[in-house]
Amino acid sequence: MRRGGRAVVAGWASRVRHLLVPHSHDSADKTDAALESSSRGLRVLGISFAVLTVTAIAQAVIVVMSGSVALLGDTLHNFADALTAVPLAVAFLLGRRAATRRFTYGYGRAEDLAGIVIVVIIAVSAGLAGYEALRRLIDPHDVEALGWVAVAALAGFAGNEWVARYRIRVGRQIGSAALVADGLHARTDGFTSLAVLAGAAGAALGYPIADPVVGLLITIAICFVLRDAAREIYHRLMDAVDPQLVTRAEEILAEVGGVRRVASLRLRWVGHTLRAEADIVLDPELTLVQAHAVAVQAEHRLIHDLPRLRAATVHTDPDGPEGTDHHAVLVSHR
After folding, report:
1. Residue-wise pLDDT tens digits, 241-250
2. Taking Cα atoms as reference points, which of 299, 330, 304 lies closest to residue 3?
3. 8 A C-beta contact, residue 92 and residue 196
């Protein structure tokens, strides 16, 4: 018993309504919630872009004054971090578009594509920083204006840590893996900014090689961020979910009156919202109307009790008679 078919005869507007809210709740509530999530994401991106751009420009001026390759690596990474806001903003805007007959789940997966772009940007910044550090090791130069380099390093740490906390907090609240990955990227930028202080201190003590060495260490740190961000995006592209979410959804369904057991459950992310498909087993003596009512209640509980779940499809199976296979005709197709 699948509920999706009920919306077909109502036309295109009804299909969009059913996609967003597959039972009796007002579709405007779910649409507003999705739009609010996208709006919060766009707000975070705009503010963090401004903060990181100002920070990176200030650092770039000091790079020209000092010639510090460690600060150059940090500056390049800050510029890269600011630029990651662009594909994410495009993804959030696309995600607000209505579903179509071709993109029947909407455009939420654009966030995952943005995550790929972010990973590429991080990789490019790591390559540039590493190249400049190696070049300076081969052809060393004295670092000047060490006091300003230290100030730039502290400014870089402060700006990145603030942006990291902001992005990670909101990203987790709205369920955006790309925004969380971007926040982790910014957090490591902050620690690499502190590493620039070590390079400046070494140069001040008469060890100019400390600057390019720190530049290489920063490159290694960026590579660790690259690994973590790539893993996060890979999981999302492969429809991975936290197993605890699956367990919680099964518990919710098991608590619904009339549900004997949960036969199967599937969850997937579409952008920063979850969708669910569940098969529940019911008393075979229930009428069609009664079984439908249990399915509606199960869907209702899932949507309300599972964070960030926006839609669920619930299929009901009869628990018996014993020895009866109600899906025998489908065996060859599974």
Report:
1. 999 999 999 9
2. 299
3. no
**Which pLDDT belongs to residue 240?**
92
Give the range with max mean pLDDT: 115-119, 274-278, 318-322. 274-278
In a domain, 1, yes or no: no
User: Which domain, by its residues, includes 309?
Assistant: 243-333
> How many residues appear in the chain?
334
Identify the DSSP state of 278. Answer: E
On the question of a cis peptide bond just before residue 321, with omega within 30 degrees of 0, the verdict is: yes
Task: Say what the pTM is.
Answer: 0.69
Quick one: 215 and 146 in the same domain? yes
Contact 214, 201 (CB under 8 A): no
pLDDT attached to residue 30 = 39
CA distance 232 to 119: 10
CATH of the domain at 288: 3.30.70.1350
Structural domains of the chain, count: 2
pLDDT at 257 over 90: yes
pLDDT at 328: 67
Q: How are beta strands 259-270 and 309-318 bridged, if at all?
A: unpaired
More confident residue, 272 or 161: 161
Q: Nearest Cα to 73, choosing from 183, 202, 212?
A: 212
Specify whether 232 is located in the same domain as 247.
no
Helix (H) or strand (E) holding 114: helix 110-138
Among 36, 307, 48, 27, which Cα is nearest to 179's?
48
For residue 104, count CB atoms less than 10 angstroms from its CB and return exposed for 0-12, middle for 13-18, buried for 19 or more.
Answer: exposed
